[in-house]
Specification:
Helix content is 62%, strand content 0%. It is mostly helical and 86 residues long.
Length: 86
């Protein structure tokens, strides 16, 4: 949870700096396409809207964290109750 907070804080600070004419991080011309459930998308975008964070900035920040950490910047675990079902 703490790493997620750091990533979001970094993304918000970067976006605010960028909006105010801060550091430019290069030409963003690559597209990312992902298929997600519509309700998951709606809920996640509602949270990001409250944070004032565009989805593109969050994805860019996630990619940068993957590069910096050499992996996914949060733990991926399977809940015990799900392991019993699978």
């Amino acid at each position: 949870m703490f790493k997620t907070y750091i990533v979001l804080l970094f993304a918000i600070q970067w976006y605010n700096s960028y909006q105010k004419g801060g550091v430019y991080y290069g030409n963003k011309s690559a597209n990312v396409t992902a298929r997600v459930q519509p309700e998951i998308k709606r809920q996640a975008e509602a949270v990001l809207d409250k944070l004032g964070l565009p989805v593109s900035v969050l994805i860019d920040t996630l990619y940068r964290q993957i590069i910096m950490t050499g992996g996914v910047p949060y733990s991926l675990t399977v809940l015990v109750c799900l392991q019993e079902i699978v």
